[in-house]
């Protein structure tokens, strides 16, 4: 079985769900497309295209359910869980957490739910893109808002299991409340997409000569503009409030630069030095070396580690502290 | 000697000048720092720290002079050329061309000057960073504004030699007028730096949790913010007018996104689709495959090739056409 002694039921066998199915011993999965479920089964995994049967099995086995579908499909799966697996605990892997939690609250399922966001991926999607080892050394965010609301012992146990699940596939467990998570990913994931799109359009407006002269700064600055538009829309449109806040800061900076460029002798020293220092802080923090331009994962984690005993004395304060320093946790 | 049968004199032996000295047979160089000149000499190259002597030698040998110094040092070298090598033709390798041409015009040297911008580099600088092969398959812009001003036959011959020099070290010669060049690099080189700085600052404002969760989109989007601030300032501040125009377009796009995020159901479809299409056009054009995220140079040039006979009938129109499609030229 696995390190937390509880079966895992994975709903959705795309890049994330499929990779989980490969890495979690004894896990079983469901996919809406019968062809995909069949492919997974042909590859030797326990997969079905029958949602009701899969959820009934999860209920019977007291499985931990993972919703590994895109955000628009979450609502329908929550209804199915209520119907077929009402006593199961579950997590999800959607890249925004506020909107998912809202759906969970609408159904009064807070005590059965812990949000996840494994920050791993490739440019490809679907079962054929899934692979073993995808989550190694990746941040795996788990939310803990409900810990502040006198949760049941079962929820505390569920929380521990979700953390152990992420850990068991090599993730680094970073606790964060929903609002903090959504605000952080707006800055470091959704805003980069928006800026990449804007840069791609502005460069393209320069015509053939511009594109002919474009070198690595343009290539890297626009790379994520090559992401399929529906994926970018799903991230940015569902995290509008936090993205707006981050974008307002960026617009403030750029507007200031714009006005300085009007001067007789433009002086961008402070802005450029601030940007340089921020990047260096990120490099030091992440272990990235800006000289190497490496695309390989770093060898050693740069995230501090804090030990947490779920339900133990002061555990919520430890989680809040870990969130504030972006630490990973070790569940004891 | 070299393919254009004329000695080459390189002033400044940093990354660009040093790499040229390595790749141009029979070239000789000067560096302000005696230690650097000595290092180059120790490595077996013909290098001196005596500017006057170097320029007198250039004048005696009718050398083609390359100003391979940063923009702030250009003005002083032009004065030295007027004094010691008044009959030599020269080019420069500064990344903006308008301000350099202004200095050239101030001294009435238009008929001795052809601007270059070899778009090659690494994150490092100085003689120790220089290397053979740096210019292979890189765009090497050469300006031709003076071709529209009834230039002398000597200037046409100089223009041919500068093109042959770039070609001889493996560059792809892209003709562009000064204004077109500066406008293009504002969009695809200077704007990417500005957006990278703004993204780095906004991400950093999110604190430790944001930096902890930052993954490849933030890493790539901020990469060039790790460039030494003086280099970024030199590029952006000296190309203020063109950069302002590009930045205004970007600000227009981002402000529109900002206002759409206020809506009940934000709709970013058009913006995100436009950005995606622009990136795909760039990928097709450059031969970059957005799935591979490759950092290696492409095997085959994607730039169309046009043949040009300097001074021949209609050659200026051919150059204007090449500029408009970002083509490289072959000098016949």
Description:
Two copies of one chain form a homodimer. Chain A has 13 helices and ten strands. The first copy, chain A, has 332 residues and is α/β, with parallel strands linked by helices. In chain A, helix 7 packs across helix 11. The first copy, chain A, is globular. Chains A and B meet through helix 7, helix 8, helix 9, helix 10 and helix 11 of A and helix 7, helix 8, helix 9, helix 10 and helix 11 of B.
Helix content of chain A: 40-55%
Largest interface: A-B, 106 and 106 residues
Structural class of chain A: alpha/beta
Low-pLDDT stretches of chain A are 290-298
Query: What does the radius of gyration of chain A come to?
Result: 22 Å
The largest pleated sheet of chain A is described as: 8 strands, mixed
In the sheet with the most strands of chain A, the strands line up as: 3-2-1-4-5-6-7-8
Count of DSSP helices of chain A?
13
Number of separate strands of chain A: 10
């Amino acid at each position: 079985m696995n390190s937390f002694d509880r079966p895992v039921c994975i709903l959705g066998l795309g890049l994330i769900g499929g990779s989980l199915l490969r890495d979690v011993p004894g896990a079983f999965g469901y996919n809406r497309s019968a062809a995909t479920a069949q492919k997974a089964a042909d590859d030797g995994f326990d997969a079905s295209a029958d949602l009701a049967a899969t959820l009934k099995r999860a209920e019977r086995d007291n499985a931990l359910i993972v919703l590994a579908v895109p955000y628009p499909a979450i609502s329908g799966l929550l209804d199915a869980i209520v119907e077929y697996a009402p006593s199961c605990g579950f997590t999800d892997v959607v890249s925004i957490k506020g909107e998912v939690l809202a759906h969970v609250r609408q159904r009064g399922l807070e005590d059965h739910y812990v949000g996840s966001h494994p920050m791993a991926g490739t440019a490809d999607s679907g079962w054929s893109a899934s692979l073993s080892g995808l989550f190694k050394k990746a941040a795996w965010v788990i939310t803990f808002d409900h810990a502040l609301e006198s949760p049941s012992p079962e929820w505390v146990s569920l929380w521990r299991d979700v953390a152990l699940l992420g850990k068991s596939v090599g993730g680094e467990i970073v606790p964060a409340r929903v609002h903090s998570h959504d605000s952080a990913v707006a800055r470091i994931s959704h805003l980069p997409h928006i800026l990449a799109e804007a840069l791609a359009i502005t460069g393209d407006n320069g015509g053939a000569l511009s594109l002919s002269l474009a070198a690595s700064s343009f290539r890297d600055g626009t790379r994520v503009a090559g992401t399929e538009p529906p994926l970018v829309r799903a991230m940015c449109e569902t995290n509008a409030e936090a993205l707006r806040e981050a974008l307002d800061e960026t617009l403030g900076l750029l507007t200031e630069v714009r006005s300085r460029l009007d001067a007789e002798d433009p002086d961008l020293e402070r802005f450029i030095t601030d940007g340089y220092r921020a990047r260096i802080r990120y490099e030091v923090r992440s272990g990235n070396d800006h000289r190497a331009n490496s695309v390989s994962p770093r060898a050693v984690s740069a995230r501090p580690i804090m030990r947490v005993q779920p339900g133990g004395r002061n555990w919520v304060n430890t989680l809040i502290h870990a969130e504030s320093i972006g630490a990973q946790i070790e569940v004891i």
